[in-house]
């Protein structure tokens, strides 16, 4: 009997990934009650990922704008205006970008912390490719230009 061929079910894997993240976007609750969503990097197109990481890093705030612009091109003006209305401070941007650039859920979202060592990983495991932004450390790009 022939062995069943394994395939990558794109719709199912994306559904599972979104479920693991709690959605495809990171919501930012503004002080006025308005919610602005930024898509997690795990759901960005390949073109957006290359636009961010190839060449000079555009700055954290601009990365968030780029993600909004590409994800919702028909609604970009309205969504970008709402994003600007948030009046984010540098500390806000740094915390938000840290969440948005995840390409897989953190270990504490996937496993209980009782099973993990002090840095959040299961003992005996190496950090996965999604534990930091893709190629961020190897590119040598500065992310100090958060206000751009």
Structural commentary:
The protein has helices spanning 10-21, 46-53, 60-71, 76-85, 90-100, 107-110, 136-139; strands at residues 25-29, 35-39. The chain has 148 residues and is mainly α. It has a domain at 15-113. It has a two-stranded antiparallel sheet with strand order 1-2. It is elongated. The N and C termini lie far apart (61 Å). Residues 107-121 have a biased composition (Acidic residues).
**SS strand fraction:** 5-15%
Helix content: 40-55%
- What Rg, in angstroms, do the CA atoms define? 17 Å
DSSP strand tally: 2
Dominant shape: elongated
Tally of alpha and pi helices: 7
Spatially, the strands of the biggest sheet line up as: 1-2
Protein name: Tail assembly chaperone
Helix-strand layout with pairing:
Elements: H1 10-21, E1 25-29, E2 35-39, H2 46-53, H3 60-71, H4 76-85, H5 90-100, H6 107-110, H7 136-139
Antiparallel strand pairs: 1-2
Helix pairs in contact: 3-4, 3-5
